[in-house]
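Extended Data, record Cyclic nucleotide-binding domain-containing protein
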Amino acid sequence: MTDSNLNQQQWVDFLKKVTFFSEVGKSSLLQLCKNLTKEHYEKNDCIIQKGDVGDAMYVICEGKVKVHDKDHLYITLSQSDCFGEYALIDDEPRSASVTAMEETTLLKIGTTHFVELITADRGFAQGILSVLIKRHRELDIIQERLTVSKRDLELANSKMLGLINGAMDAIIMFDSNFRILLANASAKEILENEDVIQRNILFFMDEESAHLLERLVTEDLDGEGKSMNTYLPKVVKVIGSKETATLNEGTISRYGNEKKSFYTLILRNIDERLQAESKINSLTTQTQYLQEEIKELTSGYGIIAKHRSMKKVLDLIEQVAHTGATVLIQGETGTGKELVARAIHMASDRNEKPLIRINCGAIPENLIESELFGHEKGAFTGATATRKGRFLLADKGTIFLDEIGELPLALQPKLLRVIQEGEFDPVGSSDTVKVDVRIIAATHRDLLKFSMEGKFREDLFYRLNVFPIQVPALRDRGSDVCLIANQIMGQYSAKLNKEIDLLTKEQEKLFLDYVWPGNVRELQNLVERAIIVSQNGQVDWESIIPNPTKEQSINSETEVDYIFTSQEWVAMEKENILRALRKTNWKISGEKGAAMLLGLRPTTLTSKIKALGITRPV
């Protein structure tokens, strides 16, 4: 090793073989080498004088030195040995002198740069800590070799422990039997125990984390003693003596010899980070939900009303919008009850606040309470984070409870409390939440009859029925059906980039003669289909709009032994599934779901819906 070829990379390779830096990665050592200096001493030159305050440690590149006090020799050191390490952690006078025994070349590591690097580079700090902990276990050997006094050994030990205990991360050292040998203050805090020495570290972990740590150690022991220094592949759950659970990421490293192995586990609590991530995800979900609501607000067709029945509805909207009264909107499926609810909200004093919608019939019974009122973390299986309910999202605004007749009986008293007192308790919480929410409910059912049959609370019905609005069926709105059809045609022709002629008088008669059992929703679907199959701006409306009389005639003329093609069979199956879905208001599973009507399992029906390209109309 000469001056001409000893560059930084060679220094890194050299330091990697030095015991003090053996656990430090090469990238960290390269940063260390950028501020190293090389010093040359002749035989009998004094390198460190006893009593001086040290400002660096040294690594011997070539030559030999002795550590002594006058004529008393403590030890001789040669290539790859280090001395002066205590200068890195204190400014006490040196207890011995160091003198060159022959021509000697040293690498000098300044205290200032070392401290800066151990503070900024976690990998460097971890490597040094591993060596220091190793030295802690080898103090007896050091005592025999250096023959220092008991007081000096205790002082050196306390300095090393001070460095370990001062770390914010939890540092735990254990043997191959998982018995804890050393734990710093941060470790005792998450273990919630001041007396952990000789306790089994696996007892402080949940089953999955204990298995992970046990597997890593077992694999290391079976690996012929190769060094281990790795990040834990999964988050570790630590359970303290007081049952407090914390989630931690960390690293594990091994040191020892062929006969004994010891492990250093460094853990960092990430609970606060996970909570922050959960809050960000919650806010993102809220934002996405509100963006969808805004999109729907700005993409609807509005309410077209020339018929007196629908004009009456608009008059009622104007009357009730500014009052803040609870509104119950009734009408057949697909008549536009949600449009009425949105119109009330937009005409009210709450229009700058959100309109939050929830379909009470589309959410499983075991989840709807959490969806409406929110829940606390751990309130039930799967509740990994606190969640705000729809009522809290609608605070100072309006909540639209669609299909209110499907709300479970057990949950109805809680809704009644919100209406009467403006407060509720989230699932799993004892804290009462106050809200200022305007409630608009909608249903296609006869709630009064439901209440008489015991399927709906009578007191809740009367609290909801403060201001009832009956939305007429499309068949009862006269020429409105043609006006709505023309507007929907304009919307879809622009969307699909197809020019479509408006309805002629003859075509309008087809629309007026049909009873529209699916109301506006059915009209929307038929118009979309018509535009898709249109040719040169023309639509064969006779083939699009169902003609019950014609279909009945065709069916009566159909021979019993007629063989359907595969395409016809698929079309029949699709239409049959659509009828079942319309009849059950697109409810798939459950006692009153489409799957039961069709005699299919819900998962089978879901697969068929996807395969046939069936989508629920907006």
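Summary. Confidence is low (pLDDT under 50) at residues 1-5, 294-301, 550-560.
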